Amino acid sequence: MYKFIYCEHEWGGTKAFHLEGLIFSKNFCNFFAETFTKIFVNTTGLKPSSKVTLAGYKQRNELPIYQPGLVSKLNLVIWIMPEFNDNVSFCWKSKTGKIIKPTDEDFDEEDLECWIEGLKPDEYWKQVATEKKISSFSDS
Questions:
Q1: Distance (Å, rounded) from C-alpha 93 to C-alpha 68?
Q2: Which residues, in sequence order, are bridge partners of residue 53?
Q3: Are 67 and 75 in contact (CB under 8 A)?
Q4: How many CB atoms lie within 10 A of CB 116?
Q5: CA distances from 55 to 68, 71, 84, 100, 122 (A)
Q6: What is the pLDDT of residues 90-128, one digit of tens each?
Q7: How far is 33 from 4, CA to CA, in rounded Å?
Q8: Distances from the Cα of 115 to the Cαs of 12, 37, 92, 119, in angstroms?
Q9: Whole-prediction pTM value?
Q10: DSSP states of 27-50
Q11: DSSP 3-state assignment of 86?
Q12: Residue 31 has pLDDT above 90, yes or no
């Protein structure tokens, strides 16, 4: 079963995120992984796979990978095989106004509203269809 992000490492998330200074608590990593997947799948109809995933690098712009605030953001890149990249932002805010950081271990998941900015479902489906035409290998 593929996931967008795995939370097995002591820093949570991917090594590339860690190198960018983004460290997750175990609890936040699991929350992010489950919530991002649910929103992405419900919005696009695509599931994470070896061909549709989060890139292991930050957006190629001036935005930091993590922006804290009343609305916090993880500025990420969707990668669709063979070479499609799309900038998206996973956003969350607390209903009570508390700022929740990715390093926080103890937080109320029910207090958070989450969404993904920048999703382009139609474009992703075009890319998946293009990839299937040019690729002779299949997902395992």
A1: 10
A2: 79
A3: yes
A4: 19
A5: 21, 23, 10, 24, 19
A6: 999 999 999 999 999 999 999 999 999 999 999 999 999
A7: 7
A8: 21, 11, 7, 10
A9: 0.86
A10: HHHHHHHHHHHHHHHHHHS----S
A11: strand
A12: yes
CA distance 2 to 130: 21
Tokens of 58: 């930050």
| Interacting residues of 137 by C-beta distance below 8 A, sequence separation 6+ | none
Is the CB of residue 70 less than 8 Å from the CB of residue 101?
A: no
**pLDDT for 35-47, tens place per residue?**
999 999 999 999 9
Q: How many Cα atoms are found within 13 Å in the side-chain-facing hemisphere of 18? A: 14
Closest CA to 128 of 39, 66, 42, 48: 48
Q: Which amino acid is at 105?
A: E
Element (H, E) at 134: helix 121-134
